[in-house]
Structure formats: structure tokens, C-alpha cells
Amino acid sequence: MQQEKISNLLQDSNRLNRHFLKVIFEKQKAEQIFTSENYNFYDASSVLFLIGYNRSNKNRFSSEPCIILNKRSSLVGQPGDLCFPGGSIKPRLDLFLKKLLYLPFSPLTKWHYWSFWKNKCLKEADKLAFLLATSLRESFEEMRLNPMAVNFLGPISAEYLQTSNKMIYPMVCWVSGQKKFFPNWEVEKILYIPIYEFFNKQNYYRFKIDIDPEVQKQFDNLEIDHPCFICKTDNQTDLLWGATYRIIASFLELAFKFKMPDIELLPFTTENINRKYFSINKKNS
Predict the structure, then answer these.
(1) Which of 34, 134, 221, 247 is the most exposed place for a label (fewest CB within 10 A)?
(2) Residue 84 DSSP SS3
(3) Long-range contact pairs involving 158-165 (C-beta distance under 8 Å, separation at least 24)
(4) How far apart, in Å, are the Cα atoms of 75 and each of 24, 134, 168, 186, 280?
(5) pLDDT reported for residue 214
(6) What is the tens place of the pLDDT at every residue in 176-185?
(7) For residues 228 and 241, what is the distance between their CA atoms, to the nearest angstrom?
């Protein structure tokens, strides 16, 4: 997509929302993204791919559409990672919450393409509702996201997480009715990364994982070198990599025809993931 067209889209939130709705729908309407999987559906995870403005304070990002991420606290596994809010399905609780999403004026029933999904395949639609319920519940728990403050834009392709052997299903939402979030003990802080920053190839690097050989044996074919995005906010540097990086890369290519730089062309950064990253969780999340 031409740079001028991208710039114009990012300056108009209504037009940007319509664009996201359209490209996500066109991508998924011909696919069965849930029923074709050959594993237990209840082992999956769902995350909320949040997009919106930083309305919590007046700064240079307050008028720029951002991707909103959580930074995992030292009390959970993979501390320091940037990630979307979300987690594993809780079958009984999420079954109840799923039923609430079928009520009028919920984020699901207000979704422009909900009728299409129900008519396309009721089983697919039911799983979509289940996963959206999971991601909304987890987002409320982690950052007190108001479920009624989001505009659901659709699901995007799942991402396989090697370290836990599960699928992650991202649900894209635009946050329109909430100015401030309140992170719980799982979240160190919340980051707003302007979408235009992802088009600056100088923000991309390559890093190595510092990991004990004995730990590495637990993960088959674990890559040591990884591409990453360096995020600089509040005089701090954070590393975006792994599944969250790949989900964002997939979305940017879908929405803007933008491809992340090839890892072989990236300079190395001194930022690394140390061996403590793979230690046992201090608390169960």
C-alpha cells in the first residue's frame, strides 16, 4: 500500500475502522479457521488485539492510532514480554459469558459481519463467540477493559506457540469508549505503540536468546536468533518479539501490505532474553 494512502488512513479513525473491517472479513470469509483444527479446542488461547488512542494523558501519541500491549510482570512466566491481553479458555465461565455475547448490543451482535458468520457456519460462529468471550474476560481481569467500550472488527489467523504447544486466536478490537486502564498483578505496565512506528524499519533488530543447553533440550528446534521491534517509551526500551511480533506482522501485512524486514538484513541489538525468562512462574496466571 502506498505511504500516502496509509498516512491518510491513519488520520481518519472512522475510515481506518471500515478498512480493518473489510480486509479482515475478506481474508476470513472463505476460510474455516476453527473447525479444521485437529486438536482439543479447549486447549486454545484467545487474545484481544487492541487498537485505539492513548487518551490517558496528553502527549504526542494521543491523536495517533496505536496498538495497545501489556508488559508482563515479574510475577508471571515470560516476565518482561510485550503481549496482548488474553489467555486460556475457562470452559464453564466462558460458556456463560459467551451466552451474554448473543444478547443485543454486545460487541459481537453489533459486529457488522455477525449475521454472515451465523449463516456461514453455526459451529464456526459458536467457537468465535467462545473465543471472544475468553479474550474479553481476560482483558477485564488484566487491565479492567470495559467489554462495552470496544468495537469488534473480526478474528485474524491463529498463531502457533511452540513453547506451550497451543494455538492463539487474536480477536481484533478498536477501543473507543475507555480513557484509562487499570493493570492487575500480571501486568507491569500498558504500552501504546503508534501504528506508524511499525513502518520505520530502523526500529527492527535481531537478538539472541541466552539459554542453558539443558533448558533448550525441552524445546524442539528452538530458534536462538529472532527478529524484534524495539519500542522506546517513557525513557525505557522494551523488546517486542515472538508470537506477539508475528501476530502484529501478519496483521500489518493484511491491512497495509507491509512486510517486516528479513531477519538476515537486521542489525544485532545488545538487548537479549536471559535464561531467567524460562524459569518457573512465581504465581499461576
Answers:
(1) 221
(2) coil
(3) 158/33, 158/37, 158/44, 159/243, 159/246, 159/247, 159/250, 161/45, 161/243, 162/219, 162/220, 162/221, 162/222, 163/219
(4) 35, 22, 22, 6, 10
(5) 62
(6) 888 899 999 9
(7) 5
Question: Max CA-CA distance within the chain?
Answer: 54
Q: Rounded distance, CA 200 to CA 192, Å?
A: 16
Alpha-carbon distance 64 to 226, whole Å?
28
Q: Where are the alpha helices (DSSP H) in the chain?
A: 3-10, 13-28, 91-101, 114-120, 122-143, 213-216, 242-256
Evaluate if residue 285 carries a pLDDT over 50. no
43-65 in b/e form (b: 16+ CB < 10 A) is: ebbbbbbbbbbbbeeeeebeebb
Phi, then psi, of 138 in degrees rounded to 5? -60, -40
Q: Could you give the domains of the chain?
A: 3-200+240-257 (3.90.79.10)
User: 146 in helix, strand or coil?
Assistant: coil
| Closest listed residue to residue 44, CA positions, set 89, 96, 78 | 89
Nearest Cα neighbor of 89 from 133, 35, 152 is 133
What are the grid coordinates assigned to 213, written together? 543447553
Per-residue buried b or exposed e for 241-253, using 16+ beta carbons within 10 Å of the residue's own CB: bbbbbbbbbbbbe
pTM above the 0.85 mark? yes
Closest alpha carbon to 249 in 260, 265, 262, 261: 260
